[in-house]
Amino acid sequence: MIDLIGDGAPSAPALEATEQSFMRLGGDDSTFPRILAQVPGYAEAMWGAMAEALFEGAVDHQLKEIIRIRLARTAGDPYFSGLRSVVAVESGLTEDRIDAGCADFEDDPRFSDAEKWALRYASRMYENPAGVESSFYEAGKRHFTEAQIMELGGLIAVFHGMAVFMSTLAGGRGGGGSGESG
């Protein structure tokens, strides 16, 4: 188990900014930044990359939030699966749409062809990386610019990796949320 840095521990101003920024993803839960706080400079850089991937760029934030949750569920991570972007929820993202994007979305009329391609991209990156070949990217270019495809790829890489990491942690933060050490 990785211990959380407690509220009484000294905190660098940059780490406080990281924790405040993280609140956009999940309200008042600071578990993730308090784990990363073991190495404050790393926490700032890691969350900075994650926040950039999720909250910035040209791809719709609601779509990126659905992808982020889909990846966490694929990784078996109850922590990131349970967090919701305050920005996405405030802009109208619903649990019903999230659940649809995490299920069999291919024939779901709530998703555009572009959104279906992006959801397929998220699935293939980790379930069938050999299926992400040049013809797949060419199909994606019908919906997204190359920069947007790179934006989606970066989001997928960083959030799936963190979801896998969090799923390995004990103490109710991962590992099925059982609270048992493994």
Please give a structural write-up.
It is globular, with a radius of gyration of 17 Å. The protein has 2 domains: 13-55, no CATH class; 61-168, AhpD-like (Up-down Bundle), CATH 1.20.1290. It contains 10 helices and no strands. By secondary structure, it is an all-alpha fold. Helices cover 60% and strands 0% of the residues. α3 (40-55) crosses α10 (146-168) and α4 packs parallel to α10 (146-168).
Describe the structure concisely for a colleague.
With 182 residues, the protein is an all-alpha fold. The chain is 60% helix and 0% strand.
Q: Rg from C-alpha positions?
A: 17 Å
- Main beta sheet, described? none
Mean pLDDT: 83
CATH hierarchy, class of the largest domain: Mainly Alpha
Q: N-to-C terminal Cα separation, in Å? A: 8 Å
Order of helices and strands: HHHHHHHHHH
Structural class: mainly alpha
Oligomer: single chain
Number of separate structural domains: 2
Query: What is the count of DSSP helices, taking H or I runs of 4+ residues?
Result: 10
Q: Helical amount among residues, as a percent range?
A: 55-70%
What gross morphology would you assign? Answer: globular
In the CATH hierarchy, the third-tier topology of the largest domain is known as: AhpD-like
Query: How much β-strand is present in the residues?
Result: under 5%
Give the tags.
single chain, 182 residues, mainly alpha, AhpD-like, 2 domains, 0% strand, disordered C terminus
